[in-house]
Amino acid sequence: MARWTDTDIPDQTGRIAVVTGATSGIGLEAAKALAAHGAEVVLAVRDIAKGERTADAIRKAHKAARLSVQKLDVASLASVRAFAEVADEALPRIDLLLNNAGLGLIPQRQVTADGFELQLGTNHLGHFALTGLLIPTLLRAPKPRVVAIASIAHNRGRMDFDDLQMVHGYAGRKSYNRSKLANLLFALELARRAAAENSPIASIAAHPGLSVTGFIGASGMAGPIVQAGLLISQILGQSAQAGAWPGLYAATMPDVKNGDYWGPHGIAELRGYPRLAVVAAHAQRQADWARLWAMSEELTGVSYPSLGRAAAAAVG
């Protein structure tokens, strides 16, 4: 396996990247790397003050970094719509949309401001709506990419379309696994639709393996469970910087193709350099891709416009 790291990212000068959840973990590392290689990076974050501190820290490390901070809470459709409106007006285009923000393993069922189960609403539905609303802005770029950060947890996820939001029998881990499966199904269906419409958009998924971030500590699980999870991550996993590599590879490298799924190369895809990852058999059912898409449009009220080149020319 080639020893690819974020230092091997090609020059990103001229590209505009939007990174959701860019103040910590994988998103922070991705934003730092993209800015260091010349991209103009929009930090799309819930906490503006924290976002500004993050931008200042990146600028201190990289004097030429071009960064802006915009409010975005993917757990709120109102916030998603407001961000999309601002982006469409303020940005000439979006070359890269990195759908990274997320949470997980929430022990008790909670809901978003829109009444969605919190993990599905944040990890999937918010990004589904965001991507759909940003399609016109993406189509102003010559070769736009949408990268979804999924997870090896998709292997254990199962879609129950009769109880998609776990009103009955909620379990934090099961909900998280389902939400990450949804991320992958969405990315694959977007890729299928883009190909069918001869779209310039490339939809790619990636996962970070098992990475040491603040994710487990922010879950709300009991202290001993958190400590055990952190210990396992430290022994078997890798740093947040290394965890960002598959997503960065998917976002920047010329050999990446529409519909790809990238992850670490090591045993069980827990750690290592980027390579094409394994899509679980139950995630390859196109009927599930289409059904989740239709339900997501209905739940969010966001219907996707045409992805084709004619649409790109119309908004260009």
List keywords for this structure.
single chain, 316 residues, alpha/beta, eight-stranded mixed β-sheet, two-stranded parallel ribbon, 10 helices
Task: Write up this protein.
42% of the residues lie in helices and 13% in strands. The chain is α/β, with parallel strands linked by helices and 316 residues long. Strands 3-2-1-4-5-6-9-10 form an eight-stranded mixed sheet, with helices on both faces. A two-stranded parallel ribbon has the order 7-8. Helix 5 packs across helix 9 (286-300). The longest helix has 25 residues, at 172-196.
Topology:
Elements (H helix, E strand, L loop, with lengths): L15 E5 L4 H12 L3 E6 L2 H14 L4 E6 L5 H14 L5 E4 L18 H21 L6 E5 L22 H25 L5 E5 L4 E2 L10 H14 L1 E2 H4 L1 H8 L8 E4 L9 E3 L9 H15 L8 H7 L1
Helix pairs in contact: 3-4, 4-5, 4-9, 5-9
Residue stretches low in confidence (pLDDT < 50, at least 5 long) are 216-222, 224-233
- Overall pLDDT score: 92
Largest beta sheet: what is the strand line-up?
3-2-1-4-5-6-9-10
SSE order in H/E notation? EHEHEHEHEHEEHEHHEEHH
Class inferred from helices and paired strands: alpha/beta
Rough outline: globular
- Helical amount among residues, as a percent range? 40-55%
Give the terminus-to-terminus CA distance. Answer: 40 Å
Task: State the helix count.
Answer: 10
Strand content: 5-15%
Describe the sheet with the most strands.
Answer: 8 strands, mixed
Radius of gyration of CA atoms, rounded to a whole number = 18 Å
